[in-house]
Structures
1.
Amino acid sequence: MGTAALHRFAALAWFTLTVSANGASPPLAEGVGAWLNLEAIQILTHHTSAVVTAVVLFWLVGFVVQRLLHDTIFKKIVLWLDEFVLVCLFIYFAYELFIYLWERV
């Protein structure tokens, strides 16, 4: 990044902070926030990404276990444990989301 870009960035940051400090920015209730619950959307997005990450990681563990372990009782136990922990994570994420939204609304 060149010096001109750095100066532009610094000027923009200073302007943003100055406008925010002077109270010139409109309150959240006047914009889209009056129509939508943006905080709920952010929380739903966060929990959705956590669930998708958990599904992908547990799928990967199941795939590796199925490919590397022989058909023994240990393989079945590990796969059942993998599924059980994934279901427990789903329940935990749903509980946390429910409690958070219940307290906010």
Note: The helical segments are 3-22, 38-68, 73-104.
2.
Amino acid sequence: MIKKGFTPIVIPTVGIYFDEIDKHYLVQPCIPSPLGGSLEFGDPIMVLEEDFESSIANVTLKSLENYLKTKYDPTLEKRRSDKEQLDFVKRHKSVSVAKLTSGRIQVSAGERQGGGYHGVEDGDIVIDAASAREQLPGTIREAFQRAK
């Protein structure tokens, strides 16, 4: 139960998945969940391996920018059956990117667990927002190397 007058801290977040079979990336926009935290929302943006260096930073930063601008619509919420979710997790590595309240960018490696992902020990990398466009491609690749 949320107390009256309580304002949750909202941290813009984007999920990035690497398809280990087809070798492409899916940048999954998120929005603040009506229940707290973040919610994957809308269609992911595919980034091909050959476009990674030139595109991943722009797509990720644009998704973070749109985090608070997108209005919740239940028809756009990502939903998979249990089997579809398990198949997705088996096929994809996960990294999340968040814009911290300090303004810095945190890139976090994920580890598969059951039908989802959780953080990897020593899996967080924090970079300055001012250099994010230049540093994000290498930082995201490093996080995917840490992802399990």
Note: The first strand starts at residue 13 and ends at 19.
3.
Amino acid sequence: MGTQRSRMPCRTLNGTSVDMSGNRLVADAVSNRVVNSMTVSGRSPSTDVSTALTNRQVATGAVTSRADTFRLASTNAALTSSAVGLNGNTFAASASGNSALSRLIRD
């Protein structure tokens, strides 16, 4: 729950370029997150090798994520031969109960 503000504290923009681009406000909530990695080494690949990788996760409560406000603002300034750009700004919230990434590498 945060607020991000970009402000231009001037009364007049004369012959100026202002670009407020690429700003990101992201709220991410995860109940359980795991990364498993297993590397198996041994003799020739023709040799029988057994391996196992398991993952069990239990999430019993609610998982919430909230992004309240994202405001890019300026005062009522005069724009004389000036440019203002607002591009590629992101506002996002995500929530997940369980997240897993598993890798098995045979070398």
Note: Residues 3-106 form one domain.
